[in-house]
């Protein structure tokens, strides 16, 4: 499994971010080919001190190739282009293969 993680710093207009993200952006995300699962939250908290992030998004793909293909697809390009419409604080995007834990 391969995960894509997006961390969103505080936007200029949190209410606009929440509304636009749920009603417009996430329906675009749901169209990504090869997307196995996704989840998000606006309730991001740090274990100590203030959190540097307002929202978080996580997507799962079978492997890195599936994620790369999804992001390069027409829906993937539409998703990427749409970020500027709500994420005025920017976005930190990382991805990684998931390794099983011991135990």
UniProtKB/TrEMBL annotation:
Residues 11-88 form the EthD domain. InterPro entries: Dimeric_a/b-barrel, EthD_dom. It comes from the Bacteria. One of its GO terms (molecular function) is oxidoreductase activity. PANTHER family: BLR8190 PROTEIN (PTHR40260:SF2). This is Ethyl tert-butyl ether degradation protein EthD. It comes from Dactylosporangium matsuzakiense. The lineage of its organism: Bacteria, Bacillati, Actinomycetota, Actinomycetes, Micromonosporales.
């Amino acid at each position: 499994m391969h995960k894509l993680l997006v961390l969103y710093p505080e936007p200029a207009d949190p209410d606009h971010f929440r509304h636009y993200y749920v009603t417009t952006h996430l329906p675009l995300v749901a169209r990504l080919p090869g997307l196995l699962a996704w989840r998000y939250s606006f309730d991001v908290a740090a274990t100590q001190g203030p959190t540097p992030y307002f929202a978080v998004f996580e997507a799962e793909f079978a492997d890195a190739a599936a994620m790369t293909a999804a992001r390069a697809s027409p829906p993937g390009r539409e998703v990427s282009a749409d970020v500027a419409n709500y994420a005025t604080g920017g976005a930190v995007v990382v991805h990684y293969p998931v390794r099983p834990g011991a135990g």
